[in-house]
């Protein structure tokens, strides 16, 4: 787990770290530059023409150190100095002095910025980092606009693209990087979908500040890593029987949308559930039985929509429930959901149409508790909490919602966030754009429900479910790219266990 801390805390973190370790700030900058160069060497050839654009702060200092290190390794480097070098930070100055004499370094005047033609394959952006405190203007703005206009040039941002604030939404312009190599932890604003076009692909490289040290600065925001997930998985004995792996119930479907709940059930089975049962309208029974023989089916008395019959329908015999996929929002279904939530007392995942029903019938929110996990995508979330101006506001409201209703709130998308009532918020690091396909969310519902049924606590179930769902998406899309569909993600779940070394 990587701590995500705010930009304003970094200065203190740096000072405390170098004091505790008895090292210089220059050494820490060198660590950052070395980490960047290791990544760079794996991704770029020595015959690439690399332009390193350096500002006057410590981000620029990183850039100058990177230039020196790559030059020594035989890369074709040219340095462009942007901004007022008179105001350079001490470590930036030092790294400027350490530049080899033969390494070309050009101070860019406003005139140069306007007229210079760049002949480069790779731009390394080290103009401004997390110290940015106002919208870009003047030379920085002009340079960023010019670099953004370059085509056929890969742009790699050091720590964060120039102009992007570490914790806020962008105002004005920023460098549009193809790749961002962020030091130690991803900056909070790199999680916002509004910034996708600036961040590009995100890589995080360690610079030697250990987790234990980082924890002193915790702001209860975390970026999930594979090692956090492997240790949250339960081990099952070789005598385990299907009951140990849990009985789960997937509730949903309506005429024309039976596939949704069927996919949740298949995902639950592929995640390891001992027994999976679907609770669907009568029209869905044959469909599911014919296509998924491992699943049992309970038929609702409603032909096309779920309807609640008398009694408790035996739902409390299940270890966990996933409810909502494809269920629609008819009046009978609203009554059904209310009756279900009233009767069923175990852990549950509430998704899709069930969330929309909660949005339209706020009194049902009273059924939420610590065992409830809501999994809205952005639109479903805004139906629930109202319009949000930007993702930062959404993340704030997700925490508020979770705390107010004592439930877990999973806000889906790239870097899915998971908010807990105690104010902690986790960000996912797996998954990719090829998962933006109908039914991918139903798969997630099945996976989290499965972990709940296998006896995982709510927190472990949701963290393992979200992370492993993204991993399965990555595996599925490796050779299918944008041809990936939701059932491919289900097929890839077993391989996600292999990657995590969980049996
Ligand atoms: N622990 C860490 O995270 C480490 C951070 N390092 C680097 O240090 C960077 C932060 O360095 P700094 O705090 O010096 O910040 P920057 O390098 O971002 O530069 C800040 C300077 O730019 C000025 N400035 C801010 N906004 C501006 C704007 N819109 N136009 C023009 N000038 C502007 C500020 O007044 C200040 O002088 C990080 O992004 C990272 O690259 C590394 O060197 C080592 C360790
Ligand atoms: N660009 C993306 N990067 C990472 N994950 C994504 C991306 N787009 C979608 N996903 C994931 O795919 C799933 C889509 O869910 P959802 O929108 O509910 O789809 P559906 O309603 O069709 O099932 C979510 O888990 C989401 O996090
Ligand atoms: K930068």
Automatic annotation (TrEMBL):
UniProt cross-references to InterPro entries, sorted A to Z: Carbohydrate_kinase_pred_CS (IPR017953), CARKD (IPR000631), Nnr (IPR030677), Ribokinase-like (IPR029056), YjeF_N_dom (IPR004443), YjeF_N_dom_sf (IPR036652)
Binding site for (6S)-NADPHX: 58-62, 129-135, 159, 260, 326, 377, 442
Cofactor notes: Binds 1 potassium ion per subunit.
One Pfam family it belongs to: YjeF_N
Residues the record lists as binding K(+): 59, 125, 162
YjeF C-terminal domain span: 225-500
Enzyme nomenclature, EC number: 4.2.1.136, 5.1.99.6
Domain YjeF N-terminal: start-end pairs: 10-215
Catalytic activity: (6S)-NADHX + ADP = AMP + phosphate + NADH + H(+); (6R)-NADHX = (6S)-NADHX; (6S)-NADPHX + ADP = AMP + phosphate + NADPH + H(+); (6R)-NADPHX = (6S)-NADPHX
SUPFAM superfamilies, alphabetized: Ribokinase-like (SSF53613), YjeF N-terminal domain-like (SSF64153)
PANTHER family assigned: ATP-DEPENDENT (S)-NAD(P)H-HYDRATE DEHYDRATASE, ATP-DEPENDENT (S)-NAD(P)H-HYDRATE DEHYDRATASE FAMILY MEMBER
Name this protein carries in UniProt: Bifunctional NAD(P)H-hydrate repair enzyme
Source species: Echinicola vietnamensis (strain DSM 17526 / LMG 23754 / KMM 6221)
Name of the gene: nnrD
């Amino acid at each position: 787990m990587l701590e995500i801390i705010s930009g304003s805390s970094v200065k203190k973190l740096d000072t405390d770290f170098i004091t505790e370790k008895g090292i210089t700030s220059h050494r820490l900058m060198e660590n950052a530059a070395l980490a960047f160069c290791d990544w760079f060497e794996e991704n770029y050839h020595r015959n690439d023409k690399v332009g390193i654009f350096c500002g006057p702060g410590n981000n620029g200092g990183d850039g100058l150190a990177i230039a020196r290190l790559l030059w020594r390794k035989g890369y074709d480097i040219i340095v462009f100095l942007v901004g007022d070098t008179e105001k350079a930070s001490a470590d930036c100055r030092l790294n400027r002095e350490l530049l080899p004499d033969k390494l070309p370094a050009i101070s860019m005047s406003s005139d140069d910025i306007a007229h210079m033609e760049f002949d480069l394959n790779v731009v390394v952006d080290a103009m401004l980092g997390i110290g940015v405190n106002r919208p870009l203007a003047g030379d920085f703005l002009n340079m960023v606009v010019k670099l953004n206009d370059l085509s056929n040039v890969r742009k790699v941002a050091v720590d964060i693209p120039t102009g992007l604030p570490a914790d806020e939404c962008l105002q004005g312009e920023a460098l549009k990087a193809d790749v961002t190599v962020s030091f130690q932890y991803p900056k909070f604003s790199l999680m916002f979908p509004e910034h996708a076009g600036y961040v590009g692909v995100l890589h995080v490289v360690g610079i030697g500040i250990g987790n234990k040290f980082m924890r002193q600065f915790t702001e209860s925001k975390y970026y999930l890593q594979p090692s956090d997930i492997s240790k949250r998985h339960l081990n099952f004995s070789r005598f385990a029987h299907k009951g140990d792996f849990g009985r789960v119930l997937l509730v949903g479907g309506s005429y024309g949308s039976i596939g949704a709940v069927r996919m949740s059930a298949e995902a639950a089975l592929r995640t390891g559930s001992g027994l999976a049962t679907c609770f669907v309208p009568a029209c869905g029974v044959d469909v599911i039985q014919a296509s998924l023989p491992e699943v049992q089916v309970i038929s609702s008395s409603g032909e096309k929509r779920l309807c609640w019959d008398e009694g408790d329908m035996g739902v409390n015999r299940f270890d966990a429930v996933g409810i909502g996929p494809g269920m629609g929002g008819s009046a009978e279904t609203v009554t059904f959901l209310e009756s279900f939530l009233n009767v069923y007392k175990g852990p549950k995942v509430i998704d899709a149409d069930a969330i929309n029903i909660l949005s339209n019938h706020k009194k049902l929110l009273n059924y939420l508790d610590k065992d409830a996990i809501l999994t809205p995508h952005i639109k479903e979330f805004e139906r629930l909490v109202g319009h949000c101006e930007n993702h930062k506001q959404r993340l704030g409201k997700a925490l508020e919602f979770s705390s107010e209703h004592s439930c877990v709130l999973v806000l889906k998308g790239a870097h899915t966030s998971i908010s807990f009532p105690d104010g902690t918020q986790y960000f996912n690091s797996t998954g990719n754009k090829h998962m933006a396909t109908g039914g991918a969310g139903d798969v997630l519902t099945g996976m989290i429900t499965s972990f709940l049924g296998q006896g995982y606590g709510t927190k472990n179930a949701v963290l393992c479910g979200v992370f492993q769902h993204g991993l399965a998406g990555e595996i599925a899309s490796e050779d299918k790219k944008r041809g990936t569909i939701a059932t491919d993600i289900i097929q890839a779940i077993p391989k996600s266990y292999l990657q995590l070394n969980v049996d």
